Amino acid sequence: MTWKNILVEKEENIAILTINRPKVLNALNAETVEEIGQAVEQLEADPEVKVIIITGAGERAFVAGADIAYMSTLTPLQARDFARKGQQVLTKIENLSKPVIAAINGFALGGGCELAMACDIRVASEKARLGQPEVNLGIMAGFGGTQRLPRLVNPGWAKEILFTADQYDARTAQSIGLVNHVVPPEQLLDFCRDMANRIAQRGPLAIRLTKEAVNEGLEMDLEKALAHEADLFGVLFSTEDSKEGIAAFMEKRKAEFKGK
């Protein structure tokens, strides 16, 4: 399937989803958000894809935010629907059974920062700038920024980022836990591909349930989260992959996981 505003390429077990609106710094309008949702649904269902990388077209922006020209036309009810649609798509990304890596190649502001936060791992170019500038426009983050940001960084940092509308360089974002790695711009996609390839070689069911344990456990108290982890740990012992992985370790060979 082809889309107007995004590109999807597959490289063996890795899919690269590129927001492809470089003339407007890959800003998100309703159509683009809808296309991202459609693409991730297809990638979720594709058994060949084990890891997804999301990035932006061009050298200047990952996603510079929501499309302000588009938002200027919205009524209050349309604005609420736009926020809910954005939240729905980003939650879909967050809850995919497959790991998602954000390759942040430039501005990741507003909806772009929110998109990056919905990914499992964030890798930033040294030229990247992150922030939530919505209050500059007299509005607020609406694609989950007020909720995911304090879960990733401490609440004080989250409030500073949301209240000041400041932009933060990649190293500062890394120091507060907003991004995992900072790399030279020319190495960004290769770094993400290398990480994706390493993940793709691991047990896919184990990765899937590990992601589930982390995401769901964050919303539980520790006692319930530990019980949930133990349940999922037990489930994996019923799989062919666990038998293969343990046998391969004992036999000093590379495991051949089948996702069963």
Spell the H/E element sequence: EEHEEHHEEHEEHHEHEHHHH
CATH topology-level name of the largest domain: 2-enoyl-CoA Hydratase, Chain A, domain 1
Strand arrangement, major sheet? 1-2-3-5-7-10
**Shape by Cα distribution:** globular
As a whole number of angstroms, the C-alpha radius of gyration is 19 Å
> What proportion of the residues form beta strands (DSSP E)?
15-25%
Helix content: 40-55%
Q: How would a crystallographer describe the biggest sheet?
A: 6 strands, mixed
Task: Count helical runs.
Answer: 11
Average residue pLDDT: 96
Q: What is the CATH H-level superfamily of the largest domain?
A: 2-enoyl-CoA Hydratase, Chain A, domain 1
- CATH architecture term of the largest domain: Alpha-Beta Complex
Indicate how many domains the architecture comprises. 2
Tally the beta strands. Answer: 10
Question: If you had to describe this structure to a student in words, what would you say it looks like?
Answer:
It is built from eleven helices and ten strands. It is globular, with a radius of gyration of 19 Å. The strands form two sheets. The chain has a six-stranded mixed β-sheet, sandwiched between helices. A four-stranded mixed β-sheet has the order 4-6-8-9. It is α/β, with parallel strands linked by helices and 260 residues long. The protein has helices at residues 30-45, 68-71, 76-94, 111-118, 145-152, 155-164, 170-175, 188-200, 204-217, 222-236, 240-250; strands at 6-11, 14-19, 51-56, 61-63, 100-104, 107-109, 121-125, 129-131, 168-169, 181-183. It has two domains: 6-200, 2-enoyl-CoA Hydratase, Chain A, domain 1 (Alpha-Beta Complex), CATH 3.90.226; 204-250, Orthogonal Bundle (Lyase 2-enoyl-coa Hydratase, Chain  A, domain 2).
